[in-house]
Amino acid sequence: MPSTRTIDKILPRPRRHWVGDGFHVYPVFDRFAFTNTVSPLLMFDYAAPKEFPARKHKQPLGVGQHPHRGFETVTIAFQGEVEHHDSTGNSGIIKSGDVQWMTAGRGIIHQEYHSKEFTERGGTFEMCQLWVNLPKKNKMTKPRYQEIVSSSIPTVKLADDASVRIISGDFEEIKGPAKTFSPVNLWDISLPKKGSKVSIPYPSDQACIVFVRRGSVNTDSKILGPQDVAITKIDGESDVLELIVLEDNSSILLMGGEPLNEPIANRGPFVMNTQQELQQAMIDFRTGKMGR
Length: 292
Known about the structure:
With 292 residues, the protein is mainly beta. It is 6% helix and 49% strand.
């Protein structure tokens, strides 16, 4: 008999801030970022739809060169395009519906910005970036990119025209294309019809976090609106998330995975297990040993 997930914490929409000059984001995990409360996740920034005017013959807006070590960044472009390149020679464009899953591992230096084409034409820009922690044994792994185009992401249809795009993890025996170092779920769920009741099966022993991208939903008798977050309880028994859709054209991201239960030491763009490892990361960056 399925048992329903209950809510442990609700995080209301925080204030926005700029990351560089191209990403106006909600830091939606707020004070629980970089804590085991959201493990195996670390941080989540969401840039709600924003109009950018055409900037012909100008530099793209974004974030300049910066390092990372010890975790992965997952970037989803909902509207507009994100361009990137890094110290290992990788570059690419994340187009609408696409996902980039970057493993920083032992270290990478990269930059992210609006694509040149989007900069020239302008338009609506909407994206998010999730930071996923790496297990201690994998923190110094070789950096890698997974360019996941929209057409490669499987979609499962649910009742009342709801649907789930499975970016990572397994949903009803269908596996998402992203390769992960520990069990990580990232599901993009469309809920088009007000009044729909949707049941989402979910592993009872894994972290399950609900983020409302658009519209509103009711779960565990609590109402969640745009950019609200619900962190559900892990009890080893509750294996389904029940949702009531409160507005037409609602959309959520469901994310989480197997908690790592390891120490978290973070400073800026580095996430390790100890302060000594953080110090080494900073030394390696300053002495040019990172990102090769």
